[in-house]
Amino acid sequence: MVEDVSVAEVEGWAVGLEEVTWRIGPRFSRPQPRAQAGAYLRGLLSGVERKNGWTLAEQAGDQTPDATQRLLNHAEWDADGVRDDLREYVVEYLADDDAVLVIDETGFLKKGSKSAGVARQYSGTAGRIENSQIGVFLVYAAAAGRTFIDRELYLPKAWTDDRARCAEAGIGPEVEFATKPELALRMLIRALDAEVPAGWVAGDEVYGQNGALRLALEERRMAYVLAVPVNQHVIATIDDRPAGTRVDALSAAVPEADWQRLSAGVGAKGHRLYDWARIPIRSLDEPGRYWLLVRRRLTDGELAHYLCFCPAQASLADLVGVAGRRWAIEESFETGKGEVGLDQYQVRRYDAWYRHITLACWAHAFLTVTRAATSGEKGGSRTCTAS
After folding, report:
1. Per the CB 3.0–4.6 Å rule, which of 34, 105, 271, 361 could disulfide with 28?
2. pLDDT tens digits, 318-361
3. Is 168 helix (H, G, I), strand (E, B) or coil?
4. Do 343 and 116 form a contact (C-beta atoms < 8 A)?
């Protein structure tokens, strides 16, 4: 709970939650599921430790989880419309022209083989190959706070190649295989088409090494700082002429005098200090807009590489700042799972996954907006829980 809050502030949270349910209300065809969605949100925002069907039903005053399961599995409502309402809400309260759109995925560990998209696959949550679902997310990282604005469920080819299995999990024939970068690009395009105010896109190597994603952002004149693996090839000026080379070959040749020690943001233990350097690349395209950014860890010298497309006036510190804000999505995953039950669902169907995840993202956004208004601290770390 937020400490030392007034009665007026608590009443304000209740009014804010009523605003949320009012915003999404038109997406429901009947009053009962509309009211149940409000109860579901209140349950996700409550202090209940495990937010599953039974505990959320008890929180709502129901004797069984039947109403909750109907909401997620059978009721008529538009989860994508609710997602669009979420995006508008976040922009209304957190709008920032310098915000970073951050893309990344997270794992949801599952048992069995019936849940849509579940497979033996690498999960960053577990740090190893596990039986899990993988969700790809888009976070809006602004000065006032960071929260989710979109989500997609990754379906491995083993699923999309088995249409009978897909049908059993509620996955329609129109849903085809898409890579994680393709899912990320769908979400980015939706955000850009909706004119979400933002200055940058950031993501890890899964997304940075995808040329189609980078090209699509360049065509939209959207700046990015995207991590890439050491074997990523780029065009750089070598011996006074353009040549293809690996990024680790370029970083290995950076003179010691060119490294600058800069903070990538404040973490739990203070400023995240690294040595940084940038090297111009693709000089024949748009000079000053394409860079290879290199980060060197102070403890052991380990290097990380980023491809950058940016305004010509962007400084090294600007690029470092964007690279550091990519961690906003890791923080959002942590708070989403810890505070609003992002990973605590008990559904198998494809559409039910989207419904739970969308409402959990709404709960996270509400907390983020309320926290910003209550604490007055941009990116404040205190928690408020609606009960």
Report:
1. 34
2. 999 999 999 999 999 999 999 999 999 989 999 999 999 999 99
3. helix
4. no
